[in-house]
Specification:
Helix content: 10-25%
Number of domains: 2
Low-confidence stretches: 1-8, 31-37, 52-65
Mean pLDDT: 82
Distance between the termini: 22 Å
Number of helices: 3
CATH architecture of the largest domain: Ribbon
Oligomer: single chain
Strand content: 15-25%
Radius of gyration: 23 Å
Shape: globular
Structural class: alpha+beta
């Protein structure tokens, strides 16, 4: 399954609330002229509605450019993130630097979906990456991953300008195709066995119940997807998950 975080309050909702409050204030501000109320409606509009207008405007700016709340509807990041956890996602950080290995990131995947995905960054541009007997090997070094639910039940290799996978039952290697996955053309690679520039290998912590890069290829930090079902569509990273703040019993900094 995929981890598709959904937000509780979207920028569009806040923008709509802001517009309604502005229109209501304008209507009430005109009332004294029409009804001869000696400014009582104007005073109410200014004192009663203006604080909500400012709050809605500030909240819209924050959710658009700084941070958002997301909830987790699926189990692909168990045990790190539980179903129905609510997160704060920092949308500002990646304006200054690229994601780091180990970051938990919200991003649009290269497959059709109404929501963003949330996964962990495992491989960075220029890395070599393989999975052998359930162990992720990055740049020739086996990774220590205490955060996963279980080891992956498949092997994987990035080689020959592509991603190759074989599961524990069918031991035949299968190359992901450009029709099903975001696999940049050869000209965009710097080496046949290294993750291409601007591309990232993403995995869920619940490795065997996660639709991630082993199925749909690379995420990207910008531009458009090179291949796959969303070829030509905008790519990028929405932000980094920084805090689980609900339920209170799950509160922790990620």
């Amino acid at each position: 399954m995929s981890s598709m975080p959904s937000f509780s309050i979207t920028p569009n909702i806040l923008l709509g609330a802001f517009a309604v409050l502005v229109v209501l204030r304008a209507i009430l501000s005109l009332t004294p002229v029409i009804a001869r109320s000696q400014g009582r409606s104007t005073h109410f509009a200014r004192e009663g509605i203006d604080p909500f207008i400012y709050a809605a405007g500030a909240a819209w700016l924050l959710t658009m450019f700084v941070a958002r709340t997301y909830y987790i509807p699926s189990g692909s990041m168990i045990p790190t993130l539980q179903v129905n956890d609510v997160l704060i996602v920092d949308k500002f950080e990646y304006r200054f630097h690229a994601p780091h290995e180990g970051d938990i990131v919200v991003f649009p995947p290269p497959i059709p979906t109404p929501d963003d995905f949330i996964k962990r960054v495992i491989g960075l541009p220029g890395d070599t990456l393989a999975i052998s007997h359930g162990v992720v090997i990055r740049n020739g070094i086996p990774m220590t991953e205490p955060y996963i639910a279980q080891k992956p039940n498949y092997d994987l290799q990035i080689r020959d300008y592509g991603i190759y996978e074989r599961d524990m039952f069918d031991r035949t290697w299968r190359r992901l195709t450009p029709e099903e996955a975001n696999i940049p053309p050869r000209a965009m690679w710097t080496a046949p066995n290294r993750i291409p520039p601007h591309c990232y290998f993403m995995m869920g912590d619940n490795r065997n119940d996660s639709e991630d890069s082993h199925a749909w290829g690379f995420a990207q930090d910008g531009g458009v997807f090179a291949t796959g079902p969303r070829a030509g569509k905008h790519a990028g990273f929405t932000g980094r998950a920084v805090v689980i703040f609900w339920p209170v019993s799950h509160f922790r900094i990620l």
